Amino acid sequence: MPQDFVVTHGTAFHEFRVQISASTGPWKWLILFMVGLILANQHSSWKWWLALSFLMILFLSQASGRSESIIVFPGHGIQLETRNGFEKMSATTRRFIPLTVIRDVIINEGLYGWNVRYYLAVMTEDPLGHQEIHVAFANVLPRFPVLLEVYNGIHDILEESKINM
Hints:
The protein is α+β, with helices and mostly antiparallel strands. The chain contains 3 helices and 8 strands; from the N terminus they run ββααββββββα. The strands form 2 sheets. Strands 1-2-3-4-5 form a 5-stranded antiparallel sheet. The protein has a 3-stranded antiparallel sheet with strand order 6-7-8, covered by helices on one side. Strand 7 and strand 8 form a beta hairpin. Helix 1 runs antiparallel to helix 2. The mean pLDDT is 82.
């Protein structure tokens, strides 16, 4: 599936986003036509076909797939964000990791089926010594060059924020 990689630098944040588009291209019209033919043969009413056609066009034109972001707030922490579903009505999950518990941001490798995949992770340790690894981009699995750019960007931002503190 095609992935888009977007970097946004604001005054108070820096976002690294990877998005998988669910665009169906010209296939959506073929699917719509086939469903219309099937319904036209089963229901004699053209209103059913028209209503279903409208809903199919709406669904296929609004589908946006999935995106995951790492948002760095210099001096405060890192937020991991996942969006699923439609562009305007998406289910979003967010996890904020305070800067005080972040030990490191790493690129690690893991097995995915018979393949070796690289992933970006934030290692944390709370004051009680409890360690945890938060995997970023777990659902979109970007390639290594994208992970390396995000890794370098995050390290540059965190180093700069330490200098300015």
